[in-house]
Specification:
single chain, about 120 residues, alpha/beta, 4 helices, globular, STAS domain-containing protein, STAS_dom_sf
Length: about 120
């Protein structure tokens, strides 16, 4: 089964999604990420979606749910690298990414998470 790598950067976790997300992979990522938040005592999660050209409602909900789970585990979530087409799709689908902050790139996302600590 495919897995998306989760990198540790200090007290942050970085997830770079560089493959087309399908439902099973999204659920595996969610499980892996919540486990790593606990294991590494992470205070922040960066999800880089710059390689995603499209998202569907399931992936949008998965990102939102993952952020909610991270918050319960005392970690903030920032999504970085969102393409304009992805942002438009999320708005058109009526998805609100509650609890999810966004930044243009990883550098800005790290800075945002450091201010949130």
């Amino acid at each position: 089964m495919d897995r998306i790598p989760i990198l540790k950067m200090g007290n942050l976790l970085l997830v770079t999604i560089q493959v087309d997300m399908h439902d099973r992979l999204a659920m595996t990522l969610q499980d892996d990420l919540t486990s790593r938040i606990v294991k590494d005592r992470a205070k922040g999660v960066l999800i880089d979606i710059s390689a995603l050209d499209i998202v569907d409602s399931f992936i949008g909900r998965m990102i939102s749910n993952t952020a909610a789970m991270a918050k319960v585990l005392d970690a903030h979530t920032v999504v970085v690298g969102m393409q304009p087409a992805v942002a438009i799709t999320l708005v058109e689908l009526g998805l609100k990414l509650d609890g999810v902050r966004t930044a243009l790139n990883v550098e800005r996302g790290v800075a945002l998470l450091q201010r949130m600590e």
